[in-house]
Amino acid sequence: MLELFYKRRSIRKFTDTPIEAEKLERILQAALLAPSSKSVYPCEFILVDKKEINEKLSTCKPHGASFLRNTAYSIIVAGDTNKSDVWIEDCAIAATFIQLQAEQEGLGTCWIQIRKREYNEEQSATSYIRKILKMPTNLQVLAIIAVGYKDGEKTGRDETHLKKEKIHRNQF
Ligand SMILES: Cc1cc2nc3c(=O)[nH]c(=O)nc-3n(C[C@H](O)[C@H](O)[C@H](O)COP(=O)(O)O)c2cc1C
């Protein structure tokens, strides 16, 4: 597991190689296996495997999403605000499970932050995405996880990356 954590990097350039259905299936299983406060499971996942839809999603905010234009697969992670007051936490864990299972499958991912991001001065990124994906207003989008075969390898982390001063024992 730790080896996988050292290896994982954010990938924003993908090849055109299609992702095998079994791999996508296992990634989505990982999402559904994430823990959930009070076992409420407020997260909803939308797999987008149409390039033209990802292209539309790529303009959901001014910065940090444009690479979706050239991405074939993404998973929208959204929470039902009527079901849980901690949907953010639940969705963040599920999104992380998606990223880690994808890495395990030999794929790359990148988290695209949506919550608290704006499409423009009048509209949130979430509301822009809701219209494209026909989502009800009780769903808030936490993030889009771009997924695909990596176009080039990024160097994994090593121990020099670890900010060990952030670990405290018994008191801060
Ligand atoms: C909460 C969160 C939001 C992020 N939002 C974006 C984003 O909107 N666009 C993007 O390209 N990367 C985004 N990232 C990826 C970070 O930039 C990346 O994780 C960070 O630079 C560390 O690099 P690494 O993932 O390769 O270790 C986000 C990551 C997290 C955890």
TrEMBL record:
GO MF annotations, alphabetized: oxidoreductase activity
InterPro entries registered for this protein in UniProt: Nitroreductase, Nitroreductase-like
Gene3D superfamilies: NADH Oxidase
Residue ranges of every copy of the Nitroreductase domain listed in the record: 7-57, 71-149
SUPFAM superfamilies: FMN-dependent nitroreductase-like (SSF55469)
Alphabetized UniProt keyword annotations: Oxidoreductase
Highest taxon above the source species: Bacteria
Similarity comment: Belongs to the nitroreductase family.
Full protein name: NAD(P)H-dependent dehydrogenase/reductase
Source species: Labilibaculum filiforme
